[in-house]
Automatic annotation (TrEMBL):
Residues 34-68 form a coiled coil. The keyword Coiled coil applies. It comes from Psychroflexus torquis (strain ATCC 700755 / CIP 106069 / ACAM 623). GO terms for cellular component: efflux pump complex. It holds the Pfam family BSH_CzcB. The lineage of its organism: Bacteria, Pseudomonadati, Bacteroidota, Flavobacteriia, Flavobacteriales. One of its GO terms (molecular function) is efflux transmembrane transporter activity. This is Cation/multidrug efflux membrane fusion protein, AcrA family. The keyword Coiled coil applies. Residues 135-192 form the CzcB-like alpha-helical hairpin domain. SUPFAM superfamilies: HlyD-like secretion proteins.
Amino acid sequence: MKYLSYLTILSLLISVSCGPKEKSIEDIVENGSKAELNQKREELNTSMRKLNSQIKTLDKKLVEFEDSSKYALVEALSLAPKDFNHYVTVQGDVTTDQNIMIYPQFSGVLKDIYVKEGDQVKKGQKLAKIDDGGQSSQLKEMKAQRELSKTRFERQERLWDENIGSEIQYLEAKTAFEQIDNAVDQMKSQLNKSVIYAPFSGKIDEIITDQGQVVSPGQTPIFRILNLGDMYVSANVPENYVGNIREGSEAIVTLGAIGKSFVGKVSQVSSNISESNRNFRVRVSIPDSIDFVKPNLIATLKLNDYTSKQAIVIPENILQENASGQSFTFSLQMENDSIGIANFQELKLGKNYQGEIEVLEGLKSTDIVVAEGARTIKKNDKVRVLNFQKK
């Protein structure tokens, strides 16, 4: 093959020598102008391009005469740099901070319920009333006593200002008024607890206790109220990912029960690691555009814990291991479009994900590697490439 290439070059030189005598390179370099130098350079470049094209044509034709049956047949993969992302998969639950059971703060009979299940309510809206057992009547009496006590105190205060009467009479009147005034305020506060108000705007999801039943503080749930406007997925992540998953990390969330998926960001990472399971919690907000989301839906999260820009990535299935456990593959030094030499490449590997693995050392982004048929070849074997894949 090389012999024919030399003949081609020699023929060209002979044909040139038979024509008009031209200046030698030495003469042009010694005495020529800049224009002559540039012209000669361009002539040589043109000749070289023509020669290279002719050599390739000859090489391609010569391949047809070679005994290709002695070459192993392989498929090759042309590498190209790409962004490589690794994800850790965890299970989570849909939840909201506004999903609570409402308990009474007052004991008695549930007298009135002002809402029904499914109603949208506003924060502070009256939901129910517990019978106060006559305490409202007691409050009226106490208010009347307070007015009388106030009148006595104000009269005693005027007399004291005019230096009439004793100081003890003034102090007794003042103390009596303050006591009854405080008692009225306490009774008002107590009676206010007999009315149940909405703690936030949301929906009455469930009425748990029927009207007419006796209820007790902290023991008898009356309503479940929730707000679906601020939903998020909460999940536990093993502690060995601390530092790799942080606020802003990409999260691919799948809600299998409703057939919905979305790409979000980790909005919160807990500062505490649980002693019981050695996990920390992360939160991913759910967009309002996702319909049919309900608390306690199971979610699958793929959390991005590693990203490498312009990485060299190869399929895991082309890797091999030697006796010492060292990973390797074969790169190809191509002689022409279909024949190449297999170069043995030991590799230093990084993370793997979904059938791909990052190569940290051992390959270049412009390399061609053996994708199929590598197990039938050895170092420096000549191979015939049947098919090229692009990475």
